[in-house]
Amino acid sequence: MHTIYIDGEAGTTGLEIRERLEKRSDLQLMLLGDRRRDVEARREALNSADAVILCLPDEAAIEAVSMIENDKVRVIDASTAYRVNPDWVYGFAEMDAGQREAIANSTRVSNPGCYPTGFIGLMRPLVKAGLVPSDYPVTINAVSGYSGGGKSMIAEFEAEGASTAFRAYGLSLKHKHVPEMTRHTGLTNPVLFSPAVGNYRQGMLVEVPLHLSALPETPSIERLHGALVEAYQGQKFVQVVDLEDTEAMTGIEPEALNGTNNLRLHVFGDRGGEQVRLVAMLDNLGKGASGAAVQNLNIMLGLDEATGLV
Fold it and tell me: Is the pTM of this model over 0.90?
């Protein structure tokens, strides 16, 4: 039986991961309870567990990693601290053909962010196929449930009398996800990221609008869709919706995949037209956080990666 220590289990992501893992009979959680603020108790847990999942702010995650002296301990970090660090494997198993194997062979895996998961899922295959140039100026529009902002934002939106319906943020254009989204798609120019939060708890839409006539060879909607289908053929947790099904839709809801580890990709547009809207749907606390962490944990421990997720 594998032993797992969640450092930061009281946070939003940590709680979600704990709920997913404590139901399993093949894992044993190391819970410190009131001793979690005891530095030596944490140090012992960090070095004695088979795997550690860090659900901490960036600086605290870096400090926790520095406390790990046992080189056999597998670490999954859910912060942004290591997502563009070349010494850490990026934990998006479906991202590339060799990514799952790289995760399995690593002791240091950085869990992807929620917005980046949707964006990379849409854009990386298109850049790789040459349909979107690496220097193309890409714009991302996205909305998340307020749980993505952690305990303070949850308290704000759920407070009695709260009235905020929708809020755009990241207005300085220096959102912490930009380096991650740019690097792992193969783009060379920083993406223009426009995030927002809506008055609902969880669920996410990530959208990339494209002018086809501005792309080399003016690729068709069918060609873009085909590149995504080819990239994710046979993947359990990533689905590319058929064009016929997408054409029949009159709206798309961000909460449709809540409670799952799924990522659903759509290509919207008028066939034969010159514009498309690429849209990714996911649970920001599922495939965008805790679900991805559990999937990575399963892969690193040599288990069926869907264990505890379906």
Answer: yes
In this structure, of 31-35, 116-120, 192-196, 281-285, the range with the lowest mean pLDDT score is 31-35
Rounded distance between C-alpha atoms, residue 19 and residue 191, angstroms: 35
**Token pair for 306:** 């869907």
Going by the DSSP 8-state scheme, the letter that residue 21 receives in this structure is: H
Q: Could you tell me if 74 and 301 are in contact, meaning their C-beta atoms sit under 8 angstroms apart? A: yes
Amino acid identity for residue 195 in this structure: P
Question: Which distant-in-sequence residues (6+ apart) come within 8 Å of 45 by Cβ?
Answer: 5, 7, 30, 32, 52
Amino acid at 301: L
CA-derived radius of gyration, the chain: 20
- Give the integer Cα–Cα distance in Å for 64 and 77: 10
Distance from C-alpha of 296 to C-alpha of 206, rounded to nearest angstrom: 22
Cα(40)–Cα(35) distance, rounded to whole angstroms?
9
249-267 pLDDT, tens digit each: 999 999 999 999 999 999 9
| Residues 281, 278, 305, 48, CA torsion sign | negative
Longest Cα–Cα distance in the chain: 64
Taking alpha carbons only, the member of 216, 208, 227, 219 closest to residue 274 is: 219
Q: Report the catalytic residues.
A: 114
